[in-house]
Amino acid sequence: MTDPISLTLAEARDLLRSRAMSSKELTEAHLSAMAAARGLNAYVLETPDKALAMAAASDQKLAKGEGGPLEGLPLGIKDMFATEGVRTTACSAILENFVPVYESTVSSHLWRDGAVMLGKLNNDEFAMGSSNETSRFGPVVSPWRRKGDTAKLVPGGSSGGSAAAVAAGLCLGATGTDTGGSIRQPAAFTGTVGIKPTYGRCSRWGIVAFASSLDQAGPFARTVRDSAILLRAMAGHDPKDTTSVDLPVPDYEAAVGRSVKGMKIGIPKEYRVDGMSDEIEALWHQGAEWLKAAGAEIVEVSLPHTKYALPAYYIVAPAEASSNLARYDGVRYGVRVPGHDVTEMYEKTRAAGFGREVRRRIMIGTYVLSAGYYDAYYRRAQQVRTLIKRDFEACFEAGVSAILTPATPSAAFGIGEKVSGDPVEMYLNDIFTVTVNMAGLPGIAVPGGLDAKGLPLGLQLVGRPFDEETLFSLGETIEQAAGRFAPERWWA
Amino acid sequence: MVERFGAPPSPAPLPPRAEPTDLSRDAPLGKTMTAPVKTDKLIEGATGAFEVIVGMEVHAQVTSQAKLFSGASAAFGAAPNAHVSLVDAAMPGMLPVINEECVRQAIRTGLGLKAAINLRSVFDRKNYFYPDLPQGYQISQYKSPIVGEGEVLVDMPDGETVKVGIERLHLEQDAGKSVHDQHPSMSFVDLNRSGVALMEIVSKPDIRSAEEAKAFVAKLRTIMRYLGTCDGNMEEGSLRADVNVSVRRPGEPLGTRCEIKNVNSLRFIGQAIEVEARRQIGLIEDGETIEQETRLFDPGKGETRSMRNKEEAHDYRYFPDPDLLPLEFDQAYVDALAADLPELPDARKARFMGNYGLSAYDAGVLTGEKESADFFEDVVRAADGRTRDPKIAANWVLNELFGRLNKEGRGIAASPVSAGQLGAVLDLIADGTISGKIAKDLFEIVWTEGGDPKAIVEARGMKQVTDTGAIAAAVDEVIAKNPDKAAQAKEKPAMVGWFVGQVMKASGGKANPQAVNALLKSKLGIE
Amino acid sequence: MSVDAATVRRIARLARIAVEDDEVEHLQGELNAILAFVEQLSEVDVTGVEPMTSVTPMVMKKREDVVTDGEIAELVVKNAPATEDNFFLVPKVVE
Q1: CATH number of the domain that residue A113 is part of
Q2: Assigned domain for A327 exists
Q3: Helix, strand, coil percentages, rounded to 5, for chain B
Q4: Distances (CA, A) of C6 to B317, C9, C11
Q5: A23, A78, A108, A135: which one is catalytic?
Q6: pTM of the full predicted structure?
Q7: SS3 category, B311
Q8: Which of A121, A348, A459, B87 gives a 20 to 30 Å CA spacing to A224?
Q9: What pLDDT was estimated at residue B29?
């Protein structure tokens, strides 16, 4: 009998449906794996009682031959998603023991479809980070290690807990959020599949807001097929979110395995940056070859404003965050540090409750919106954004179906390695992924191979608005060629 | 490779703007610089006369069931935090969704102000911290409001019509409420009002006196009550004004203005302007400068006092709300709303003057409230389709009815006499059943006891006597009892009035006075 | 553009985050590093370019004017640090 935690979500789904396995068994196996993996610090809150109750309810349905698309399948939820009755903190001290009386729309879709909740997953505080080192609960330890080395590595961020948990078999899939790369970059670091859908594809209602015009929810999974199954459940119009789009959700799973023959794949020359490692360059090349072998046409394209995406992002995202995080003031929820008047209370509460990175970004955001600087910074960054989007539109208009790039400039690095005095150094991790959020396009990270030290490297595909199906088709092609990668289980 | 910051590049930096991003400071001056000085409105200082320049920002609560961006109720007076949704409470992950009726109400109001309706407008976040502002920002409209320039015609009691320009109207969220006097060191915060839709209506600085200001706000209120877009209930906070006041000697440049915030009655608006103008005049005459600041009016002390901490000028960091999209609709949408508007006060007043021949003053008073105008027209247009004499109707409504209502502090909605009942009284006068004097008694009975006027007249025998035979008998009796006076009447015809009085008394007021008069004259031998 | 210590304090006050004296210099350095990084945007020719106002172009959906929410005062105050009779309690504002 296959180890339950090595199953893909699709395989587990089939086994549950055929009653070859029960949700109870599957869930218990995951709960045990989680207990053995606490050293990874992927979960910040385990919900075993809830999980078993949900599993039992699923088993009842499955016994009758009923059940939703995710019936009985155990998943982890990033701690940015409000889960009703279950503590939600955005991994920040400021939300202390906040227990929402509401469920995020995206996670409610998962429960609607029958999934089982294993617990809340670790992330960078308020989703601000690329390594999951800013969480109030401490860093996540990647299940991956360099060959012959026991140094602890980062899983990427901000959805580090989600990526680590999926890679380590601690859940069949997980939710993440992606504002500048926070699904795709950790997916690449952990050899998992992560997709950020088109802006507006998933509802943002009930997800702790970081940067409203950039945030999107998306799934983590071990295969492209699993990712497609999860996205179908998560996506959909929500009247409670004005920015959510009213378009039907396709059957994404049906796109997995579709031929990519004749698709034009763009290789943007501006993504070839100085100092790019040979291995990453080689993998990029290899990815193009795989797609060519499957009948796609490879063309070089130009996205001239690429290099401005990251600086523009570091104006827009902090600006929106500075406003979105103003509500964390100790009045209605979360921690409160007393003060002799309300201003002192605000200042002390927020200084104590927010970590360094969050405070830094709020400050930058406040500055770039402030009197006299709005035009020079925020407005200009939003103009640059229009230009970035136009670059992509021009490509798509010329017949390109998707654009292929590396997902990250490097493989995973060590915990503590990049926490230097220089904030910008960490920001450079997102250099290939932020363009996609800035343009509002869908992007998927698919494992492409391992580097010389045995660490995963990922490829990114960027698609047309609401054409996630093409990304799944192309992603599957790469997965078939590259194979799947799982870390050695050193922690259990 | 993306530039590392080791040796930062130094392109020429863009210079910051000198002044803060507060729109009201940028408001164009309209006709302020060129308008002629109204010498009768100047205020006398110790060293000469000063002109008072007033602009107003009126906050009007939109009449709607639910709030602007949340589905909680906008109704007044609920238990603490009962009319609060998770969105209003700014829980993590909450998002705004706009209420279409609030958009329509803003457009309707704009049409009532004869203003330009902007087919595309943007919602911005106005960021600041205050306990009654749960998000830490207010969703408002900054650079692109839903309504542009318009105008309000204000009729003054002396017959002057003042044109007050409207700069803009925008939609924004109201804040919650803090109560500070329940506890020595803590404030109590209630978010019921947080998120209720407000229209902020900004006038041009075209107002030149406290009286004009009050009349302007009253007219604005009337227009919105006609439209049903705001109930104008100042006691409940549905209508509040921020008043901008500056003074200058005639012909000189504009003075520095101060903003008096949150004035919530017409009376206080007038007092605040008077008090603030004199304060500024006093400072100028003492050779001091006016500081541009925000002030509060204290009605108890009859003074304004500075409100904001000077070192902390607000920097609202406006930016377009990324949780919303630009608000867009087409001209057809606006036209459909325009087609459905009720008759507005100015048009109704003109119609009353034209169709009913009423004076500007009477027409103005009647149309001051939609309910009064409706009542009046229900008196003029009888239920069976007849038309009653509008001038007589106006006279009765303005004098008898309004007089009585004012005495008892009641509004027309609480009138114990309905339009139908009043109309019936007027019918009884018109067909001679009762005299004007008896009608006043009848009105009093209907007011205090209710009932059908015609039936009351029947039951109490209030019909005036028109039968000349019966009157003749009474006339003869009075003449017979007063022979000396009768003789004098020939020389002094005015004495007939005394005789009329006597006959009326003798008949218990029921004799038709015209008939009595005619008969007396003939019997006394007077022409 | 770079910030001085006074600006750091002013921004911290606007953002309602207490900053200790010994933190100011370090924060100043970090903020300046980020500002230096974003300075390159001034190279871009943005003449006539509209700032992005909606990421995915669409007409804003509006809600009907019906009361669908509220009457949950207990839930609203449930997570609050200090309440009384369903009011939120906060230290007084000093005007």
Answers
A1: 3.90.1300.10
A2: no
A3: 40, 20, 45
A4: 18, 5, 9
A5: A78
A6: 0.90
A7: coil
A8: A121
A9: 47
